[in-house]
Design a protein that fits this description.
The chain has twelve helices and twelve strands. With 338 residues, the protein is α/β, with parallel strands linked by helices. The protein is elongated.
Length: 338
């Protein structure tokens, strides 16, 4: 197995420089970005895997286990980590070996700040959730030293666990047309997200094909939380023509939307129908309960872990792509297909 000496020779730098770079101390030691990149590329060429276990043992760790990192954006979606984490923990518990799980928050569009993705000095593999489109660009240009699985993102370079968000948007538009709606709207989280963008594109494309009218004033962006949904519908109710059906691209925002409509005496589904997205636990307890597109969260979390562990054990080679189906869960905010 290749070590510091072999990497240093290939990169044509000293062993001391190589050690500093691979231990994540390159910036602090004022080693140029170009030199650091040479070291990382040499390490990748030689299939170098940092011995995290040995480092932790030297640091006095009592039990040395492989480390799986869950990288989750530090924004309003952090509240949704629980259901995903449950799926990960259940899957890990089914293995005969043990793993340590590290939850690593990161700011959207600042994934590049997590140097361990490149150096591999803190964890043995990573599941990345909710990266922005800027984060995705960083990953495409980067050469990480550890295996990575992306959740709800697409990449030819990395393993991915995904759903067809474009198709989900199409299905909601088809449902609205089938139920006889003509004036419709869409409320979206104001975040940089390929998944959200695809839902929007699928909905608007199919709406146009089916002759649904989506006024520009009825395409509304707001914060990715309950307050954002509330504020979005406050704005929507000022529209010159109120749509008879609205696609809200997240359950969180739908909770606020229902509150705003209730305050104004607008009845759901009699005055306006709503279809949400995700089918998180809250969606069946709203008043009225939300019709929503279901994402198989537990199954997708399981797939993320299984693919990552196989990559860590060199049982498969990246990229592995696994796609899951979404489906409509009909509750009281909107009826089913007629």
């Amino acid at each position: 197995m290749s070590g510091i000496k072999e990497i240093a020779e290939l990169a044509q730098v000293s062993e001391a420089t190589t050690s500093l770079v691979l231990n994540g101390k390159g910036d602090a030691s004022r080693i140029s970005s170009a030199t650091q990149q040479k070291v990382f590329e040499a390490a990748k060429t030689l299939n170098y895997r940092p011995n995290i276990s040995a480092r932790r043992l030297r640091n006095g760790g009592e039990k040395v286990l492989p480390v799986i990192a869950l990288l989750w954006t530090l924004d309003s979606r952090a509240s949704l980590v629980g259901p995903f984490l449950k799926g990960i923990q259940t899957t890990i518990s089914n293995y005969n070996e043990e793993f340590d799980l590290m939850i690593q928050p990161f700011l959207g569009s600042q994934l590049s700040e997590i140097r361990s993705l490149i150096t591999g000095t803190r964890f043995n593999g990573a599941i990345i959730v909710n990266p922005t489109e800027q984060d995705e660009q960083f990953l495409e240009a980067a050469n990480p030293s550890i295996p990575i699985v992306l959740y709800q993102r697409s990449s030819q370079k990395y393993s991915c666990v995904n759903v067809d968000n474009f198709k989900s948007g199409q299905e909601v538009a088809t449902l609205f047309a089938n139920r006889g709606h003509r004036e419709v709207g869409i409320v979206l989280p104001n975040v940089s997200s390929t998944a959200i963008r695809k839902r929007k594109e699928g909905f608007l494309t199919m709406a146009d094909e089916l002759g649904l009218h989506v006024r520009l004033e009825n395409i509304i962006f707001n914060d990715f939380n309950e307050t954002g949904g509330y504020n979005a519908f406050q704005k929507l109710m000022q529209s010159s023509i109120l749509p008879s059906a609205v696609f809200v691209a997240s359950d969180q925002m739908s909770v606020g939307a229902l509150s705003a409509l209730n305050e104004q005496g607008i009845q759901v589904p009699h005055d306006i129908e709503i279809v949400s997205h995700d089918n998180y636990e809250v969606s069946k307890f709203t008043i009225p309960p939300l019709t929503t597109m279901h994402i198989p969260l537990d199954e997708m979390a399981t797939a993320c872990v299984q693919i990552l562990v196989d990559l860590m054990h060199h049982q498969v080679t990246a990229p592995i792509h696994k796609n899951f189906e979404t489906h409509l869960v009909v509750r009281e905010t909107c009826g089913g297909f007629k």
